[in-house]
Fold this protein.
Amino acid sequence: MTQFQTDPAPSRATTGATLLEVEDLHVEFRQRSGVVSAVNGISYSLAEGETLAILGESGSGKSVSAQAIMGILDVPPAVVSGAIRFEGRDMLAMSAEDQRQVRGPGISMIFQDALSSLNPVYSVGWQIGEMFRVHQGASRKEAKRKAVELMDRVRIPAAAKRVDDYPHQFSGGMRQRVMIAMAIALDPRILIADEPTTALDVTVQAQVMDLLKDLQRETGMGLILITHDLGVVNEVADNVAVMYAGRIVERGTVDDVFTDAGHPYTEGLMNSVPQVEAKGGRLQPIVGQPPNLAAIPSGCPFHPRCARRRLGAEAAPGRECSIDVPPLRLVASGREAACHYSEEVLGVRAV
Amino acid sequence: MSEPSESTGATAASAVSTAPASASARGPLGETLLEMRDLQKHFPLTQGVLFKRTIGHVRAVDGVNMTLRRGETVGLVGESGCGKSTVSKLLVALEKPTGGSILYKGKDLAGMSGRALKEYRREVQIIFQDPYSSLNPRMTVGDIVAEGWSVHADIAPRKNRLERTQELLDRVGLNPDYVNRYPHQFSGGQRQRIGIARALALRPEVIVCDEPVSALDVSVQAQVVNLLEDLQDEFGLSYLFIAHDLSVVRHISDRVSVMYLGSIVEEGTDEQVYTTPSHPYTQALLSSVPLHEPHLRGQKDRILLQGDVPSPADPPSGCRFRTRCWKAQDICATEAPALVDRGQGHPAACHFAEARTVVPVDVD
């Protein structure tokens, strides 16, 4: 029943050292029917204490890019190229065992569906304690003691009593806390949260997001939050990268991007979502469907759905939407967008 | 952004674009179509294999009162496990209530049989949440949409059925040439349109929409919401719109009921419930919804509820919400609060109901 006025706005200044640099990351899946290009050359970096939201719909490549960082894609069929530098060292250039040594304690990840991510036949205490047994050679007793500590830290009530319970005995929100406990067990520098609250009710979502932010404040870890929920991005993240068809189409601080979108896709997303603050008028959806990743449209991948596209004589030379791929370029201070006509989008939604 | 726009979908064809600027601006509301009176559904909990004995009941729906009038949309919100989907199953007669009654046009559903029940089932249709599992993968889209006519043959004359099916597909924004395709050839949003066409085929009066957009991507959600609004205006439909997404419910509903652990805790117009919520649970629920506007960030009262929803097999005595409520007093444990107006202008089931603004009003 804790009530507090408001949460402090996330620290927008990210002065910490760079933890992770992703450069020109590509992920392809070679299939008999053709090549599915899930991630097509994305670059970003994450600093200590920063929360970076990766916003996109299903099929935008947001989860696959995170799985590439975690090294949990099956290679083959997946083909990963580019560079993923964690504290300066390129993980893609390392041997698999070296990658594991770096990643294990350094980067961890939580998933949307906590029930299927936990093993149903082991108690949660055993699963959390496994971290300490495997990575630190702790004894069973020691591992269990640490598991209880962690469960306390993620605010699972009566942790000492529940440590021997099994995943099915926990509610959805509590299971997600167990996942978080496992993820932070080894004090990672980076936590990747892939739709951590999508399966949860709003009141539980608020609890879990709060917990993640508190943990970040305590440890200074970098947080990559993968989500399709504009509201969650606005309330939790410092910076946002909007993905579409495997590319980053817009990037900037949440304040900037949400106040004034610089890419027609971002603008379309904002207009198509009803808000709880106001009833609003008629929604303005984006027409059509997200593209098939095995046949991404030529030029700008968004152009078939874009209301602002320019084709033929309308287009400026070298900037025809159906032919020329727009690069992710600086369109305003601290803002990047991959649209030939981004300047026309900026300043439109002055609400 | 209150102008009707032409962007209903990729293949939107019908020339109908008479969408009103706001859902609440629709004409005067008609007569009461559906009425739920103290509706209850208790599922027995049994023990034993050969000699089953009942050891208790899950009170999934426990005393729900709601009305739905012609042409209006009533939103029903609540978290998972609160019983909202059981309400939808009771309404389309997939489950029988264990207590209370459902009145349709003044007649009790429990007393209907034969022709009357058949007619009820035609007039009250449902759209399901999951467009993947609610369409038979072995049937073509045309067969799915037309299936209802094999029971209600009088709705569509036999020889015009293909034509009528194509009209329906066209109306929901699908290419009419797709009648012979199978569900797996469509995306989630398109499948939801097929489900809508199937519901429309029988010319219903009421459509129960059970989480119709929650499985869809955000850009596609808006297309389906707009389609539902257009169809309502065109055919004078009444919707019971069940969802957990508070923003979508506010957008589409004329009136909203909030459900917690089997019963309604607050009801009113969308404006009343969202700007002056009076039940502590509604306040907590609304305060948890993340806002989209950076300039409103940090202006919101945050109420973080502790703990989880109690089991509906063993609900708390008195007020169901008292175990998580910060206002709970002794009376809450002994006396269940009635759903009545205690001076807030709309009913709330709380002894200490008090209007409180938790969602900041977007002024500009």
